[in-house]
């Protein structure tokens, strides 16, 4: 106990840095699906693919049949997806960070079955799966 009191500054730095490392792991990220799971969902049908990257990124390569709605426009263009409320929606971006934000927006709008592609298009391409241009 004397050590902790004598070195309170160092102990507080250790506790704060440990908390900062754990914080991202404790945040809810929504439902994620691996590339294999997304492929299986696509093969079953009744899946809508939403790419939330910018139009320039989308033009460089995307999943076949993916609908491009940039994350910045998603809240205002959510009505375009109303017909898909009873379908599974898979949201993707380049690495998965924007897709996590998009899944939260869609779930708040009443979409029940929403997944984000874990690792994004980068993971899709690393798995050797096809993209369209």
TrEMBL record:
The chain crosses the membrane at residues 7-26. Keywords: Membrane, Transmembrane, Transmembrane helix. The keyword Membrane applies. It comes from the Bacteria. InterPro entries: GlpE_sulfurtransferase (IPR050229), Rhodanese-like_dom (IPR001763), Rhodanese-like_dom_sf (IPR036873). SMART domains: RHOD. Residues 43-133 form the Rhodanese domain. The keyword Chloroplast does not apply. This is Rhodanese-like domain-containing protein.
